[in-house]
Amino acid sequence: DPRANCPADVEQLGRATWTFLHTTAAYYPERPSPAQRTHMLGLLNSLPVLYPCSHCASHLGECMKANPPDVTGRGSLSRWLCERHNEVNEMLGKEKFDCAKTDERWKDGPADGSCD
Ligand code: FAD
Q: Where does the ERV/ALR sulfhydryl oxidase domain start and stop, copy by copy (predicted)?
């Protein structure tokens, strides 16, 4: 790919960021400590301020105002993030993702072992 070393565009940045966020949520503790909750809230609340796509950042900020992050555990955080990603998918006319498949996609891989 001749553009492999080019600066990230909105799509590449988005894929990389969703990979980071969903994977981080997938490995977030079931019972996070108060410090872990505080850090996760800080990470998520930073995105509307710092995400380097300004219209993406302000849209996310609006979504987060309507639906504040749930950092009480990995299951609820993964679902929260899936729902926010689906809001972006919907806005962009992309297919909605089945949030029941979040762990399969980001943590366990499919049951047929094709990702092992
Ligand atoms: P992506 O949407 O990047 O998804 C990557 C993979 O995640 C998919 O292949 C699928 O396997 C999985 N997936 C899809 N949906 C879900 C879900 N709901 N839960 C779990 N896993 C899922 N782009 C814009 O043009 N305008 C914007 O305003 C905008 N806002 C963004 C805001 C944020 C916070 C982020 C991180 C990205 C934003 N983007 C925006 C980028 C956009 O979301 C996509 O990343 C980009 O269009 C590339 O899309 P894609 O089809 O490759 O898959």
A: 6-106
- What is the best residue among 13, 45, 85, 98 to mutate for testing ligand 1's pocket, by most ligand atoms within 8 Å of CB? 85
Percent of the chain scored above 90 by pLDDT? 97
- Helix (H), strand (E), coil (C) string for 56-95: HHHHHHHHHHHCCCCCCCHHHHHHHHHHHHHHHHHHCCCC
Instruction: Give the architecture-level CATH label for domain 11-107.
Output: Up-down Bundle (1.20)
Provide the pLDDT for residue 116: 94
Instruction: Give the model's pLDDT for residue 1.
Output: 87
CA distance 46 to 51: 8
Average pLDDT over the chain, rounded to whole? Answer: 97
